[in-house]
Amino acid sequence: MKVKIYDTTLRDGTQGEDISLSVEDKLRITQKLDELGIHYIEGGWPGSNPKDVQYFRAVGKIPLTTAKVVAFGSTSRKGVPPEKDANIRSLLEAGTEAITIFGKSWDIHPLTAMDMSLEENLDVIYQSITFLKRHVPEVIYDAEHFFDGFKGNKEYALATIKAAEEAGADCIVLCDTNGGTLPFELEEIIREVRASITTPLGIHIHNDSDLAVANTILAVKEGVVQVQGTINGYGERCGNADLCSVIPNLKLKLGAECLSDERLRKLKEVSRFVSELANLPHNKHQPYVGDSAFAHKGGVHVSAIRKSPLTYEHIKPELVGNQQRILVSDLSGESNVLAKAEEYNIKLNKGDRTTKEILASLKELENQGYQFEGAEGSFELLIKKALGLHKKFFDLLGFRVIVEKRSDESPPFSEATIMVKVGERVEHTAAMGVGPVNALDTALRKALEKFYPELKELRLIDYKVRVLSDQEGSRASTRVLIESWDGKTNWSTVGVSENIIQASWQALVDSIDYMLLKEEEEGIR
Fold it and tell me: Domain 4-277: which CATH class?
């Protein structure tokens, strides 16, 4: 079974709320999708905005190994011959080997939204495809609202795709544009379509009923040979079928020939790359490619997967470029601690006193409000302290943080003064910051950089505060999670206190300790 993958992230995906891509972003994503092995990349609608015109001018200069870039647009307008229609001309000017146009399959659209008779709509579909086929090798027809149209007026919906077939469309894509079709409806409709036309079929599903991936897979089971979707499921309203789930389901579950094994291993990398350029947080709970997709927390689960990952994993995470993760929390058993220690190349034995002490300490700290499943850097330090493998890189002699506001109109600013001791040397310095934590972070690293110059690469990239009790008001304990980055890797650390500055200090110190300890172990320092 061969299935072609058609990506519309750069067009349909950008119609999603909070998503905007520059021309440069779109070009970089194009190259990444080509590396993944995508067959078609829908670059945009050249007749709709200047950005897409610029994209098509630039993308033609980029050598691609697998993908065809596709220009997208609509059929010609009522009463305008295709050769004179501005939208059709812009599609040809894009210079792509393949063009996708959409037309109306649901009778209410030409009758109510377009002031067009049903016969005129059929003629527009036929004439547009016929004209384009004389100028480009491949024309794909998207039958918009097909499933709703079929349920409302089956004979007319079928007439629209028959017009596309007679005009010479290379593939007819059945679109669930409103995303409301249920799986059993989709199966029945596709069977009737296959009995009516012989042109290869594609599928384009929106996710408004949370069924886009399932319906896409069912469509392939019914003989569809092209699947459309977006990376991470981005798209208008609730999004499109998520190719990061569709592709591995096709490849690993149905045995479909779509991507090579080697390219499939790039899937998580591509997923994160696109989310970064879209400036959106990567969904950690996303199937297959999310950080939590193969994360295990319960002690019974961890004990089982250490014997055989098949017990709680439906595929090998490496197949899609992901990895197994063991989480630690108050739900953990010894198996969690042993598995995490193994990740850190630390030898612990089941039943040993040290292992039991680490587990007891973990549960007690979690009871106080610490959360180590999101702060694995702090947990690694906890294990190393228990084993005497931790080194103290500096001693705090004191710090002071001042927050000052000089007028109602001006924002407050912060100043931190700190004194630390490294060996026998004392360093006393100060720094300004936009807030007290930023000032303290800057002052601490400023004091330590002359002793540990590698700290110049350290960046605080995320800072989260969680109030742990809603009964104490502003006196409540808070948990601070900090994510840090040194230009190569990132790690998270945690602090808990009734004083938010103290909680932040704990997380900051763990972050610096973690980096310096790692570099010393690796022989960098």
Answer: alpha beta
